[in-house]
């Protein structure tokens, strides 16, 4: 065993071959099929949740619906996810989603400015509405209904709500299980 220190100051003992605080379980074939269907390889999050295949399957379905079936643009959803991850201190989600945010169309200034978005001039009105809504979902900040209504339909607001709440829950799962950032991203 070795002591692992996180950027956020936490430390714990972790077996050098482990990916979380609990032993790895084999990935269920149903999860492998779901991931293969969308061209994804399993990541440590999937492996950590493999102990509960009946819960992993619908979570994957939800994540994939958010990723592939939503009307809200991918860049706005990634902006929501990254701000939620920052609020939760989720290094794992940031390691996965900051590159996705960049590849979805956010420029490097926007990616760097997410944490200080209120002072940054690089965000559009819809982006600012998403960032404010992320802070409402993730930190209980007041919700700006006027900004949301001006930028998003009820369908889009619902998608943003489910996106934010889902990734808030995932950040907390990652923290509770102490899931290690995938080696390819570390």
From TrEMBL:
Coiled coil: none annotated. One of its GO terms (molecular function) is peroxiredoxin activity. It holds the Pfam family CMD. InterPro entries: AhpD-like (IPR029032), CMD-like (IPR003779). It comes from the Bacteria. Residues 53-135 form the Carboxymuconolactone decarboxylase-like domain. This is Carboxymuconolactone decarboxylase family protein.
């Amino acid at each position: 065993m070795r002591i692992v220190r996180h950027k956020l100051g936490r430390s714990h003992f972790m077996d050098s071959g482990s990916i979380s605080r609990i032993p790895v379980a084999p990935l269920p074939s149903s999860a492998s099929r779901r991931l293969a269907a969308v061209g994804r390889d399993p990541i440590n999050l999937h492996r950590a949740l493999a102990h509960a295949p009946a819960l992993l399957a619908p979570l994957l379905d939800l994540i994939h619906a958010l990723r592939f079936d939503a009307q809200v643009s991918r860049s706005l959803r990634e902006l929501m996810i990254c701000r939620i991850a920052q609020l939760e201190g989720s290094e794992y989600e940031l390691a996965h989603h900051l590159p996705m945010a960049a590849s979805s169309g956010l420029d490097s200034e926007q990616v760097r400015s997410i944490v200080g978005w209120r002072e940054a001039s690089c965000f559009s009105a819809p982006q600012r509405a998403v960032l404010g809504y992320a802070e409402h979902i993730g930190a209980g900040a007041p919700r700006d209904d006027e900004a949301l209504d001006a930028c998003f339909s009820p369908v889009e607001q619902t998608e943003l709500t489910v996106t934010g709440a889902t990734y808030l829950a995932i950040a907390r799962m990652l923290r509770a299980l102490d899931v290690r950032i995938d080696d390819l991203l570390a």
